[in-house]
Structures are given as structure tokens and as C-alpha cells.
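Protocol step 4 of 5: obtain the predicted structure for the target chain.
Materials: sequence only (see below). No template structures provided, no constraints applied. The aim of this step is simply to have a reference model before the mutagenesis design in step 5. Sequence pasted as it appears in the construct record:
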Amino acid sequence: MRTSIKPVLMASLLTTVLSVPFAHAAEDAAAPAVAPASPHTLSTNIGFFTDYTFRGISYTRERGAVQGGIDYSHSSGFYLGVWGTNVHNAALYGNTVEVDVYGGYLRPLTENLSMNVGFLQFFYPDSNHPGAGTAYKGGSPNTTELNAALTYKYFTLKHSYAITNFFGINDRFGGDGDTRGSGYTELNFNYKLPVADLNLALHVGRQTVHNYSQANYTDWLVGVNKDFSIAGSTGWNAGLNYTTTNASDSWYVDAKGWETGNDRVIGYIKRTF
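Step 4 output (C-alpha cells):
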């Protein structure tokens, strides 16, 4: 934080300065000015997870994931971020990395109610490599979604709408057309329990895939997590989540026959800087 020394206006304030003890006058002259708070906020995060699960579907076959990102926000409500994780090469056409770019606008409506509108771009760099996704030539898992959410106290209701094909699914899968217009509606509940400062997380979501009703499913999650510090280092969080789905085992299966929508317990530890 920058500081500055208040100028002593000798001519106009001489009488005032002489009327108080010298120590008080010197203290006032040396008092730093308070710099205005910056409207910009930048943070980073990194975490280690026993599985990368997206909307109840596993993308690392419970073999672990390293995830991290950078987030920027402005006091006006605008935000932008980038996030990445490893994925198993059997999950998405031979890809091993996922990079997400997202942004939007968050605005309080009342003391307890806020709205959030934004976008989310899923990008899989390995899709551009020779031989990647050979079995699904012509498709790309890169997906763009628009989203809107309302948060009231502990509840958040959100809907995401795909404006591209949904993770590369199109008529080559034997359906009636493309998957633009697929949507995901979710309700989340986050609450700090009066026990050991634990946070409770509850979630239910419904994924619909346009023109492919057999790919529709519902997922659920129950979890607890805790914020903590290590040797004075703040920003740590660790937790356990149990998640399950009613996804079709014949549809949600990876290239090696592993069923990706089954129930699982996920543990993690992460830190935000």
C-alpha cells in the first residue's frame, strides 16, 4: 500500500499548530493517507482430487486429478477465469487435458438475492493432434455453454445451455441430429454447519441432451468440507463428496468399457491464493 505525508501548511495553520502539544502535531503530520481499495481482484487455486467428476460423470476413472486455475474479478461485477485439469485418454476421444475459459457478470439484487449470467468454454487441446479421436472422426468435444443463475441465501438455481454440439455428440452417433440446445439445470445448497466449522454441500442436477433422450440423466451429490490454515497459511479447503447418477451404463461408458456414471466417493484438498 502506498502512503503519503500530509503537507504542513505553515502559513494558514500556524496558530492551530502552536495551540496543541508538539507531539500531537508531529503525529498528525506523519499520518499516512489511506489508499483507495483496488477494484481489481486476482486469485489462483490448485487442488488434488481422487477423481475428476463433471455433473456426476467421471473423466479420470477414479485415478486422481490435479486441477488449478486463475480468476479475475472487478468490483463492478464482471469476472473472467481459466481452469485446467487432466482427463483420462479413454474418456473424451483420446484427450488427456481439459482447459475451461469462463466469464460473466454477478450482480446483487437485494441483500439476500443475486443474479449471475455468463459463459463457459470447454477446450480439449489434444483433439487437434493427429490420431486423436480417430474412432469419432469429424467430431470435436470442444463445447460452449451460456448460463444464468439466481442465488438466494444458501440456495443457487442455475441453468446452462449449449450453443454448440454437446461434447462432440452429433448424428454420427445414430441420433436424429446435432446436440445444440442441450441443457443442464442444477440446484445447489451450501451451508456452514454448527459442528467443527464444517460446510455442507448438497446438489441435484438434470442433464438433457438434445435429440438423444437416452443420454439424459440426473445426478446427486452430498458432501462436507472445511476451510483451514496450515502454519499460518490460509486459503486451504479439504472435503469428501459422495456422488451418484441414474445415467445409462450403456451410454455413459468410456472407450475401454468403464462405466463413468456409477456412484463414488471423492476426496480432495485445495488451496486458493
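Step 4 remarks: Residues 1-36 form one domain. The first helix runs from residue 10 to 18.
Proceed to step 5.
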